[in-house]
Design brief:
4 helices; alpha+beta; 200 residues; single chain; eight-stranded antiparallel β-barrel
C-alpha cells in the first residue's frame, strides 16, 4: 500500500473507511467463489466454486472436501466426448459412504447463468434428481442436454476449472476399459484423486 500524505481530515477518514471496507469486500467475494485444488495422479486441477449461485451444492461439496472424503478416490468413469466422473469409489472400487443427498439446485444455477459447458463441475446423481451426494463430474465438452429444462431437472453445475485444463485433457484421453463392477469407461491405469484442498 502506498503512503498517502497531507490529506484533509475528511478525505483521510473516507480513505480509512473504504480501506477498511476493501478487505471485507475481498472476503465476501472469496466466500461466494471459494477455490479448490484437485490433486490427481496425473497433475493438479484448480476450480472456483459458485456458492452464490448453487449454495447448498457448494456447501455439500466443501464439507466432503473438509472431511477428506475424496482422498484416495478415483475417476471411475471417463468418456472422452462427454465428461470425467469421480469422487465415489476408492482404488479397489469400493463405494464410499456418504451423507444424505443434497437438494437439487440445477434450475436455480441455470437461472444464475451456470451451464454444462466445457470445464464446468456438476453433481452426478441417479435418475432421482434429489440423489446427488459426493460424486461429481467435469464436462470435457459442451453438454447442453444436461442443463435443466421444462422436461428435465438436469444436472447442477456448481464450479468451473480455472487452471489445469491440460491435466483434464490427459485424464479425458486416458485409455479405458472394464474395471471393478463397471463394464466400460474405466481408466486402465487408475486416475487417483489424491486429495482435494480448499484454497484460502
Amino acid at each position: 500500500m502506498t503512503t498517502r500524505l497531507n490529506f484533509p481530515r475528511r478525505l483521510t477518514c473516507l480513505v480509512l473507511f473504504f480501506g477498511l471496507l476493501a478487505p471485507a469486500a475481498v472476503w465476501a467475494q472469496n466466500a461466494s467463489t471459494p477455490k479448490v485444488r484437485i490433486s490427481t495422479s496425473m497433475g493438479d486441477i484448480e476450480a472456483e466454486l459458485y456458492a452464490d449461485k448453487a449454495p447448498k451444492t457448494v456447501a455439500n461439496f466443501v464439507q466432503y472436501v473438509n472431511d477428506k472424503h475424496y482422498d484416495g478416490t478415483i475417476f471411475h468413469r471417463v468418456i472422452p466426448g462427454f465428461m470425467v466422473q469421480g469422487g465415489g469409489y476408492d482404488g479397489q472400487y469400493r463405494e464410499k459412504k456418504t451423507r444424505a443427498p443434497v437438494s437439487h439446485e440445477g434450475r436455480q444455477a441455470l437461472a444464475a447463468g451456470l451451464k454444462n459447458t466445457t470445464g464446468t463441475l456438476a453433481m452426478a446423481r441417479t435418475n432421482d434428481p434429489q440423489s446427488a451426494t459426493a460424486q461429481f463430474f467435469i464436462n470435457v465438452v459442451d453438454n447442453a442436454f444436461l442443463d435443466p429444462s421444462f422436461q428435465s431437472f438436469g444436472y447442477t453445475v456448481f464450479g468451473k476449472v480455472t487452471s489445469g485444463m491440460d491435466v483434464l485433457q490427459k485424464i479425458r484421453n486416458t485409455p479405458t476399459g472394464a474395471g471393478g463392477p463397471f463394464p466400460t469407461d474405466v481408466p486402465r491405469t487408475p486416475v487417483v484423486i489424491q486429495t482435494i484442498t480448499l484454497l484460502k
